[in-house]
Design goal:
Length: 512
């Protein structure tokens, strides 16, 4: 911990967690960004501890939320999924402890196959409809239409119907979600003895669709064509001619417009916290699930590439009563948010977890809570990160075997594939196994070369990657193949053993 000087405190009563999806750290003013305006996020940073070495754990959307709400990495065991029967979200234990919990969200995946049970243990939940793939409407609003379709090749999206119902800024899901959060604070502050408000806001995730003035705010030269709101998911979009320079600029500007719009509405949540005088009793956590590539290394979206800093080095800011603002340079990751919430409310859960509370860092009691972390996407590289280096280990040979352990056999619903295309049902190769730390039987199946595998596991691997994040923050010099890699091979192998990762991980990574 640096800069912060803890003052006497009796401990917070409440917590507010605000998760902004696909929030790029390097674009926030609080982290040195100058490209887009983020005055309210910067305003929050001015009263917070700003973490400088915070990284993703499991990716993408639902795996990251599993990290935060269940406290356990899951990308080593499954690709995408629900709260399983051997585990509890923190809200279950909070409910038993008498803490009121409220979810406010426009995140569609929380309410789809593969996202079951995250909302069910909240005391109450509020789903603001119509974002991205939310199947909200069966027809457009007959009085007003106009959903732009860019970079989709004319493919129909559920957003096409939803978009026609957004006539004003206040109709868009992001503003509605943040407005509902502000109203909940206003209506409930002082009523509940202890509470946790969890705001899962899907912006600035694509579609990067905003009303004016945001739509044209950062690209005055675009002209009268519809704004580009759907980024391609690929590496080399400029090099391959998929995007022109003007289109690339437009996509990045459209993300910036959405970032500035949701920043504006985050300001209303800040205003509500101010008006209710909650800063003296409430920990407020601002986090994200991952970043989003917008042309860095000519990468767009979240394609099958190693997790570079743009995607994996993410913002985390925490305002804690009685603790002066400052910076924290300790290594942290998403499961640590769960551990922090459990510490705040003094609850425990039955499943094995992987996080460490950040309260000792915030209070200046220690300078470090972990020496390493793992991050990754199921079926892709496994990344080991310490305070200096990042080691991304790719499969050796074919990407097999791939093991899934789950009692809720599901994966990311794309609305473009059948369930059989996304992930086949378990067959006669499946057998009962155990998750580390649990005696509950779980279905295990190993996928071999040639089997259908989930969407996120499809990738062309370019070997291992090893970067010195201190001397080479841009990750331009791959040190894989050097003597240093041998050391990091052993570190990763040791950590996988410690976590009791499936033996299939050792085989596919060439450790067996």
């Amino acid at each position: 911990m640096t800069d912060a000087k803890p003052a006497a405190t009796t401990g917070p009563k409440n917590a507010v967690v605000i998760l902004l999806d696909s929030l790029n750290r390097h674009m926030l003013g609080a982290y040195g960004g100058e490209e887009f305006a983020t005055p309210n996020l910067d305003r929050f940073a001015a009263r917070s501890t700003r973490f400088t070495k915070h990284h993703t754990g499991s990716l993408p959307c639902m795996p990251a939320r599993h990290d935060i709400l269940c406290g356990a990495l899951d990308f080593l065991w499954k690709p995408w999924g629900s709260v399983e029967i051997w585990e509890d979200a923190i809200t279950y234990e909070l409910r038993k402890a008498g803490v009121t919990t409220q979810l406010i969200s426009d995140h569609p995946h929380l309410f789809e196959t593969g996202g079951e049970n995250y909302h069910s243990d909240f005391t109450a939940w509020d789903y603001q409809r119509g974002h991205e793939g939310d199947t909200w409407k069966t027809r457009p609003d007959p009085s007003w239409t106009g959903s732009p379709l860019q970079q989709r090749g004319g493919r129909h999206m559920p957003y096409d119907e939803s978009r026609s119902y957004f006539k004003n800024e206040t109709d868009f899901p992001g503003p509605r979600t943040m407005g509902a959060a502000a109203k909940w604070i206003t209506d409930n502050a002082g009523y509940h003895d202890r509470f946790m408000l969890f705001v899962d806001e899907f912006d600035p995730h694509e579609p990067f669709d905003t009303p004016e003035p945001y739509a044209s705010m950062y690209d005055k030269d675009w002209g009268d064509e519809p704004h580009m709101i759907w980024p391609p998911y690929m590496q080399g979009a400029l090099k391959k001619g998929v995007l022109t320079e003007a289109q690339a600029k437009q996509l990045r500007a459209s993300y910036g417009g959405k970032l500035t719009m949701i920043d504006h509405w985050f300001g209303k949540v800040m205003d509500a916290l101010d008006a209710a005088n909650l800063w003296d009793t409430t920990v407020v956590i601002l986090c994200t699930d991952h970043g989003h590539y917008l042309g860095e290394k000519d990468i767009w979206g979240k394609p099958g590439v190693p997790i570079y800093q743009t995607l994996g080095h993410i913002p985390l800011m925490i305002a804690h009563p009685g603790i002066a603002p400052g910076t924290c340079d300790a290594l942290t990751t998403s499961v640590d948010i769960f551990a922090t919430l459990a510490d705040i409310f003094d609850v425990k859960v039955r499943q094995r977890t992987h996080g460490h509370s950040l309260l000792p860092l915030l209070r200046g009691e220690t300078d470090s809570v972990r020496d390493w972390l793992l991050t990754g996407v199921w079926g892709r590289e496994v990344h080991y990160i310490d305070k200096r280096y990042k080691y991304a280990r790719a499969p050796k040979g074919v990407n097999a075997p791939l093991t899934m352990l789950s009692n809720r056999w599901s994966t990311m619903p794309t609305h473009m594939l059948t369930r059989e295309q996304e992930l086949p049902l378990p067959d006669d190769r499946a057998y009962l196994s155990r998750m580390p730390g649990s005696n509950v039987p779980v279905i295990r199946q190993d996928f071999t070369d040639g089997d259908q595998i989930p969407f996120w596991a499809y990738a062309k691997f370019g070997g291992h990657h090893l970067y010195d994040l201190v001397e080479d923050g841009a990750e331009t010099r791959n040190l894989a193949g050097s003597a240093l890699e041998k050391d990091y091979e052993e570190r990763l192998r040791s950590v996988l053993k410690e976590l009791e990762a499936p033996d299939s991980q050792f085989k596919r990574l060439g450790f067996a």
